Amino acid sequence: MDKVLSRDYHPVPKADADGDSDATITDRPPHRGLQQFLKRNLTAITIIGLLIVLLLLMIAVITAIAVEPFHKVVVVKGPSSDSLAYPETLEGKRQCLPPAPRVRYSCGNSTKEAESLGCAYDPLAGCWLHKECPHDFTHEFAHFNNGKPFVYFYDEAATQQMKDYTELGNNPDFYWTAVREHLVHCLYLLRRGHDVHMRGDRLDNMLGDLEHVDHCTDMLANWLRRPDPALEKIGTQGQTHCFMSCA
After folding, report:
1. Segments making up each domain of the chain, as ranges
2. pLDDT in tens, 209-231
3. Helix and strand tally (H, E) in the chain?
4. Beta-strand relationship, 119-122 and 152-153
5. Which residue stretches of the chain are H helix?
6. pTM flag (> 0.70)
């Protein structure tokens, strides 16, 4: 009887409905459906991405403006009518800011209201000024005219003269006076502004108004440009061997 030989048989892989075996499925390349989807919708996906970026930027800007810590950095407030005494100037211009917020002292809108608020007429400023505001050089101005008050009139023709600074302060309308008075006003008001700034004191509306400072300097310069033999005389001595510092 012949000997039966044993064989190691390996099962044949089952075929699927398409006739492909499991091995064939395993060896297939990865599915390319996602790549084809991205390729077909690339334009739409790009537009949606840009819209999302723009939306995020808008949210960031709104947050920076609305949130208080950022609001203080982004938003710069200019001077209001109530803060003319402490003007804020930008773009490299001069600044006169107090070290801390201060109480604003007003003189109202009439002489009666000004007196009730503790104000008095200041001849140098030509306005009513609160007693807590600086009154530097008022005495020097009032006695500049050989110790006498400057002369003021109700009319340009100088037919109705005022008696003194008290009458001037109670005048409800304009006044007329000599050009010299205006020049001396500018001279001492600039002195007042410098002294007040150096000691960190209060700035009133006139001292804090850069336009008024420019007006006074321009007026002084214009009158100094006028021909005057006295201004051409040699009488000023200067020193160039000096060395300055700034802080």
Report:
1. 111-225
2. 999 999 999 999 999 999 999 98
3. 10, 4
4. unpaired
5. 22-26, 33-40, 42-66, 68-74, 111-116, 138-142, 165-169, 179-199, 210-224, 229-232
6. no
